[in-house]
């Protein structure tokens, strides 16, 4: 019998009791991004001792991307590989217990199953999942084997069902990106060292490896500071109101305010922005201030004029702001929002320099209609580089039957960099960079010259890269050369040498009454 005490997920820095696997158990990890799923399965395989046999089952895709980066001197000597075709993924998962029994799995084998979360249909009930697991457990125990299921992509319905299987599964956890962090949420994990539950850790990627950020690096500041009731504010944000109390200090300029704030630890810093041209400078200043003063400082940004877009807002929050107060907020409401952040601690991780933060939120310099391969590679790279600071929208449209591609493509206009589309098997795929879910309909109203439902019979919002068919997009031929989606040009051509002289208005005086004959 193989001892599994040293077989784990391989996340560096976590304790064995939080990541080790036990004989005969089924462990399930849901992961938002497929790139993170590839990282985790590689670390799991590399953590397996060389004398322990292993099996990798890849659902709805090729197994090659999962093993291409395996270290040659780590992991099992024997690794068996299986693939489930995308067209039969649901059927393949349903018959997995029977199919594994036919493959001649060795005693003590470690089995990893990697599949998109939507392979388990939203209609799958808790009882169905429970029966699926219960068919596997006796077979696993009889062979001293262990099954690790890694499901990638949007998994909210599936995850909600799995939470109810705490007596059936040996472990359930989630890996996701949020507010600039990679977070590992441990719901429950049962192994030879006991049970761990209700924990969350912040991770980073170092040398292509998921690694724990030590708690001392996450939060080193004291929870109580002498200046926690002090308010340092630009005078303009109070709309001419005098200092509200002896704890309020008003400054005529942001530079004077930030100079005083350099020594603060838990004070409330209030700055204003009235022009989008100030954004990058303000973001840099907030980043420097947060790095110097720590997470206990409360930073409030008030929009004095419409200047902050969604992506800009996320950048300011990632750089150190606690809250962005939008333009048009009444002063009384503004003061209430300031009070609401008291006692808060900034929750982002201070592990990125300003240039890195800015680069992650900068759209790729591409827009309009692209070929399917370029579309997939661009979207995959955007999701891989993202740490959850901004939300993107990925949408699939089915055109009205009989409507030529040229017709509906020319009724669209993709103005922003990062907004791209492609055609595949008659459907249109659209990716909108830095677009919230509630902003999708207004965005489509700006993109389509006609209402979108006049051009398309169906709109399906996809959860992410896992909902795209990699093989179909990567192998699809380029579309017709004349297909294109117009993009607005902001360049005004200079007049040529033979251009007509522009007309100039001339003032004239008109009489108030008709002249006499």
Automatic annotation (TrEMBL):
Residues 493-517 are annotated as: Disordered. This is Cellulose biosynthesis protein BcsE. It comes from Pseudomonas taetrolens. The lineage of its organism: Bacteria, Pseudomonadati, Pseudomonadota, Gammaproteobacteria, Pseudomonadales.
